[in-house]
């Protein structure tokens, strides 16, 4: 499954060792995010350090580990979609335009975000963290059922 992740998902994964972090490290998914997110993260670095209780070096190491499973996409790879993305998100939340543009520019299954602004648009499928968990559980159950069926043969 290919998903574009929103900044709030990445920040959440840095704040604590959580389900979100484990999902971002799960190799069953391909995660994409606009490269600009890294600049945005720098604005929140002090907040992340304070809330997480870990050092700046530990945050950077964690981010590097997460980035091994995330594909940063430069603006020039999706900028042709920015006008359409602005039409979709401009009146809702202009800051989310790049995520929509990226989603419009590559084959994907949707955007993973807990930001309610994305729910106001209807062009791109939006998944909340609970949706991702449910998808994984469903996949796991399906694999278990398949193994059980193969044992019967």
- Strand tally is 5
Mean pLDDT: 90
Strand percentage, roughly? 5-15%
CATH topology: Rossmann fold
**Overall number of domains:** 1
* Largest β sheet strand count, sense and barrel closure: 5 strands, parallel
| Rg over CA atoms | 17 Å
CATH class: Alpha Beta
What separation lies between the terminal Cα atoms? 30 Å
Runs in which pLDDT lies below 50 for 5 or more consecutive residues are none
Question: Which sequence of strands runs across the widest sheet?
Answer: 3-2-1-4-5
The number of helices is: 7
CATH homologous superfamily (4th level) name: 5'-nuclease
Proportion of helical residues: 55-70%
Summing up helix and strand content along with how strands pair, one would put the structural category as alpha/beta
Q: What is the second-level CATH architecture?
A: 3-Layer(aba) Sandwich
Strand-and-helix sequence, N→C? EHHEHHEHHEEH
Shape: globular
What does it look like?
- The protein has 153 residues and is α/β, with parallel strands linked by helices.
- The protein has a single domain, classed as 5'-nuclease (Rossmann fold, 3-Layer(aba) Sandwich).
- It contains seven helices and five strands, in the order E-H-H-E-H-H-E-H-H-E-E-H.
- The protein has helices at residues 7-15, 19-24, 36-52, 56-67, 82-93, 97-105, 129-152, and strands at 2-5, 30-34, 70-73, 110-112, 126-127.
- A five-stranded parallel sheet has the order 3-2-1-4-5.
- The longest helix has 24 residues, at 129-152.
- The chain is globular and about 55 Å long.
- The model has no long low-confidence stretch (mean pLDDT 90).
